[in-house]
Specification:
- The protein is α/β, with parallel strands linked by helices.
- The protein folds into two domains: 208 residues, P-loop containing nucleotide triphosphate hydrolases (Rossmann fold, 3-Layer(aba) Sandwich), CATH 3.40.50; 34 residues, no CATH class.
- Helix content is 29%, strand content 15%.
- The chain has eight helices and ten strands.
- The strands form two sheets. The chain has an eight-stranded mixed beta sheet, with helices on both faces.
- α2 crosses α3 and α4 packs across α5.
- The termini are far apart.
């Protein structure tokens, strides 16, 4: 088997996914004159963001993961489940965590965010793998990846021995890949009693997912929302759309207008370019 890659982007496809990431199961070794350092929980900042709703459920979630093989976390958008759940698992001593995302950009951006929060460079304790690119190392304990990558790894590692924890995020999307993973994990769990599975989603049908995994426990986390005021300002007959947008922005209270944070949605490429 090939050795794990260093923390640099490398070219590969999903068919060789099983050869990319090795869990830190041995002491640090020297490679090319450099020491590969295996991080321990004491090296990391694993504190949860106090401003996120999921933080109030940390003890409950940790106890459920410790005592059950499958846990379902139903959290609304903004609850912090995607970035904070992996840190809860790391606190529990889980050091071979696979965390799936439906899209490549999500896998990469979430990995970067968690790496920043833990205070380690991306590619060390926290890494990611998407098609054609992997940023991981022998010291990687948490790997973000697309669900397609994990499916490809099953072809080479039927028992998923490289993982002690698998987090399936955005399960409500019910894509073909997600459904295949959930079905495979269901029949794998009896053969891997040490494996922990956490299923998360924003709008999950918790009862059905719980029943699928033999009445797995459910944690419901509220989301973090902000007040939204809707104002209608239709353009007049003599106004063109760009002028109407500028007028609408100028009509907003000065305290909330920051022109680098205004999002606008327009019906065509020409109008978007014309507004720049």
């Amino acid at each position: 088997m090939h050795k794990a890659s260093r923390a640099h982007g490398i070219s590969l496809d999903e068919s060789c996914a099983a050869h990319v990431w090795l869990a830190p199961t041995r002491a640090p070794t020297a490679r090319s004159g450099r020491v590969v350092r295996v991080s321990t929980p004491g090296d990391l900042d694993l504190s949860l963001d106090p401003g996120l709703p999921i933080t109030a459920h940390e003890t409950e979630i940790a106890d459920l993961i410790r005592n059950h093989q499958v846990v379902i976390v139903a959290g609304e958008t903004g609850s912090g489940k995607t970035t904070q759940l992996p840190k809860i698992c790391l606190k529990l001593g889980r050091t071979r965590i696979g965390h799936t995302q439906p899209r490549r950009i999500a896998a990469r951006s979430v990995a970067d965010r968690i790496a920043q929060e833990t205070g380690r460079p991306l590619g060390e304790t926290v890494g990611f793998q998407i098609r054609f690119t992997a940023t991981v190392s022998q010291s990687t304990q948490l790997k973000l990846m697309t669900d397609g990558i994990l499916l490809a790894e099953i072809g080479h590692d039927r028992l998923l021995r490289r993982y002690d924890t698998i987090i399936i995020d955005e399960a409500h999307e019910r894509s073909l890949n997600i459904d295949l993973l959930l079905g495979y994990l269901k029949q794998l769990l009896p053969r891997r009693p040490d494996l922990k599975v956490v299923i998360t989603s924003a709008t999950i049908d918790t009862a059905r997912f719980s029943a699928h995994f033999d009445d797995a426990p459910i944690v419901e986390v509220s989301g973090r929302t902000y007040p939204v005021e809707i104002r209608y300002a239709p353009p007049g007959d003599e106004d063109d759309l760009p002028q109407a947008i500028v007028a609408a922005i100028r009509d907003l209270p000065c305290r909330i207008v920051h022109y680098d944070t205004v999002s606008r949605f327009q019906p065509g490429y020409y109008l978007i370019e014309n507004m720049k």
